[in-house]
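Action item from last meeting closed. Structure (511 res):
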């Protein structure tokens, strides 16, 4: 196509746009509309071209014609990123006084970018090269030459992992266990529904991207084998539900997951329904349904909505972290993925194994997990551990006087006994161990249902756990398995001691 020099031909240029475009993901849209809205798997995309005013609106037909080829051959998120990069260029250029963009505009744009935004140059470069190659008005041909001759830095990857960023990086060991306990306790108190608990556990267990969890269906979890088939994102397939990766889910999480699946079925959701349905996750139904009932992802939350609703549902129960002056720890889903990768490396996973579990097609993206010294990580955890421990309570239950003071008062299934140390119960269960998959009595100490008795053999149980830990002293991960329960038992012992001391003080004062 020969260059079109008359910008006043914008209306005629708009007529060159097709009335229908089929995206790579199979969605249809009319590129002549002011607003493009479409779905691509579990993603909902939107570009509003009415944003461009003050003279820039005459460039919109050229922008659309440059974007259409990307709609057909690239991911939808890439198309949105291209338009956003152009929007940044417009915002940095000020009023539209020129008939077309010049290299000076690009120079000003690059100078205005912060250190963490330099990657936008590379994104914009792709759009401008296409724009100029099509001979579309609004972009001087020298713009393509100017960008081609300059280094275009990519998005800096892995920095949050390498620096153990407290906002975006992996959780420390103490943060990990504190979060696990806080979410469990919040669910037990009725502060949060079951679905965020399930998502938290799957994020920690599988390390997937939030879009993978948004793609899950009920049938992807086999309640008999306890295997989860996690859809693979970024596999360059038609959609995310073409390839799957199997994960064995632990007994406690699979028990909760089975309960959750039964509740979904009872609510009328069939096996082919999403595991995290839009109707369940969203506070209110979407104003506009972009998917047809026959769409494979009908009823699924889009990835951004699932991420946002998850963070909103658990932000009030996030435990504090001294790495942020004891503010609640940020809980964006990406941090769980980084934590999964970090913990796998610390457990000795090879690069090939880690790349496979994280769904990477090559090894270059996992190098960052191996770049930080394990000793540095160990020192970080130790440095914050002492400060975090008093705030991150491992014991979530309620101390009671004795069995007669407990909720169930000795009912069948309520007594918690460890016959290795005594035939006397250490406490009671407020729900008689219903729907429980914890290992009794060790797991009980971290459960919100547990009601330890004041005069019970807690010290004897603690000594048993410490001896078992000593057996695994050469295997740090194995030795740490019961650390959270050990801390919980210690907290119960401290509470019992405090009660006794307060009573003794009261008796002395009364005499």
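Sequence:
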């Amino acid at each position: 196509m020969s260059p079109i020099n008359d910008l006043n031909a914008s209306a005629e240029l708009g007529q060159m746009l097709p009335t229908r475009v089929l995206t790579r993901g199979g969605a249809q849209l009319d590129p002549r509309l002011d607003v493009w809205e479409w779905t691509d798997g579990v993603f909902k995309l939107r570009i509003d071209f009415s944003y461009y005013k003050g003279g820039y609106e005459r460039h919109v037909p050229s922008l659309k014609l440059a974007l259409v080829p990307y709609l057909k051959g690239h991911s939808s998120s890439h198309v949105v990123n291209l338009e956003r990069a152009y929007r940044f260029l417009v915002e940095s250029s000020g009023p539209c006084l020129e008939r077309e963009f010049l290299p000076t505009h690009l120079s000003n744009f690059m100078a205005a970018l912060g250190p963490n935004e330099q990657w936008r140059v590379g994104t914009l470069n792709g759009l401008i090269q296409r724009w100029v190659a099509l001979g579309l008005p609004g972009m001087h041909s020298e713009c393509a030459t100017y960008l081609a001759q300059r280094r275009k830095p990519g998005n800096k990857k892995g920095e949050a992992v390498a620096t153990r960023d407290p906002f975006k990086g992996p959780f420390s060991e103490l943060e990990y266990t504190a979060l696990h306990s806080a979410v469990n306790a919040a669910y037990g108190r009725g502060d949060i529904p079951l679905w965020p608990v399930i998502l938290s556990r799957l994020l920690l267990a599988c390390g997937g991207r939030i879009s993978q969890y948004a793609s899950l269906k009920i049938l992807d979890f086999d309640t008999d084998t306890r295997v989860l088939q996690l859809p693979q994102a970024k596999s360059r397939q038609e959609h995310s539900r073409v390839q799957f990766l199997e994960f064995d889910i632990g007994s406690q999480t699979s028990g909760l997951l089975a309960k959750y699946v039964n509740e979904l079925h009872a609510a009328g959701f069939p096996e082919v329904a999403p595991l995290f349905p839009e109707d369940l996750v969203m506070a209110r139904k979407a104003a506009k349904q972009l998917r047809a009932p026959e769409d494979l992802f009908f009823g699924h939350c889009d990835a951004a909505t699932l991420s946002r609703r998850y963070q909103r549902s658990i932000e009030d129960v996030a435990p504090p972290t001294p790495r942020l002056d004891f503010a609640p720890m940020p809980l964006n889903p990406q941090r769980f993925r980084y934590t999964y990768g970090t913990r796998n490396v610390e457990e000795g996973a090879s690069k090939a194994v880690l790349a496979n579990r994280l769904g990477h097609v090559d090894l270059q993206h996992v190098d960052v997990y191996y770049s930080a010294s394990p000793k540095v990580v160990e020192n970080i955890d130790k440095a914050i551990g002492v400060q975090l421990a008093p705030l991150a309570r491992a014991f979530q239950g309620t101390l009671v006087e004795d069995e007669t003071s407990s909720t169930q008062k000795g009912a069948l299934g309520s007594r918690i006994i460890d016959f290795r140390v005594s035939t006397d119960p250490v406490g009671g269960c407020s729900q008689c161990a219903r729907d429980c998959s914890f290992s009794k009595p060790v797991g009980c100490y971290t459960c919100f249902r547990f009601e330890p008795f004041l005069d019970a053999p807690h010290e004897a149980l603690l000594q048993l756990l410490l001896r078992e830990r000593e057996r695994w002293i050469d295997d740090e991960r194995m030795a740490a398995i019961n650390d959270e329960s050990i801390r919980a038992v210690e907290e119960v012992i401290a509470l019992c001691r405090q009660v006794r001391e307060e009573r003794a003080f009261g008796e002395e004062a009364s005499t």
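Note appended to the action item: Residues 1-7, 373-391 have pLDDT under 50 and may be disordered.
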